[in-house]
Amino acid sequence: MAPVSLERFVKQLAQLKQEMDEGKLQSSEYDQRLARAIRELRERDGAGVQVMGSPSLATQLVEHDLVDEYRLMVEPILLGGGKRLFPSDGRARPLELVSVTTAGTGVLICAYRPVRG
User: Fold this and answer.
1) CA-CA-CA-CA torsion for 8, 13, 18, 22, nearest 10 degrees?
2) Domain ranges in the chain?
């Protein structure tokens, strides 16, 4: 199987979204096809992929064990709400702390890697 290009990956995502919006695709099939596309993208050489601003995509990547590193920012404020980032399947996913940086504003920027068994 030839590695997928980033351009092809973006087209695949757009096609999957369109098929979901049109009701042509069940959510379980969407999840499977998305995970397959991400695995193909990971097989290619080049820079890593970052997900910013898409909690639903990030959740799917976590569910399919496709995250190599988490970079989480802890803000010094409690809001009591927000969009869910992690799956609610109850499965423990151990992480190893790689680094912590404190910004001048008090924000903690934490890097974690999954502990693979």
Assistant:
1) 130
2) 1-49, 66-117
- The candidate with the shortest Cα–Cα distance to 112, out of 75, 71, 57, 65, is 71
Q: Position of tokens 């596309």?
A: 37
Residue 115 has pLDDT above 50, yes or no: yes
Specify which residues 110 forms β-bridges with.
Answer: 72, 100
Token digits for 67? 């995250």
Mean pLDDT of the chain: 82
Q: Is a pLDDT exceeding 90 seen at residue 112? A: yes
Give the dihedral sign, CA 93/55/53/57: positive
pTM above 0.85, yes or no: no
Structure tokens at 90: 């109850």
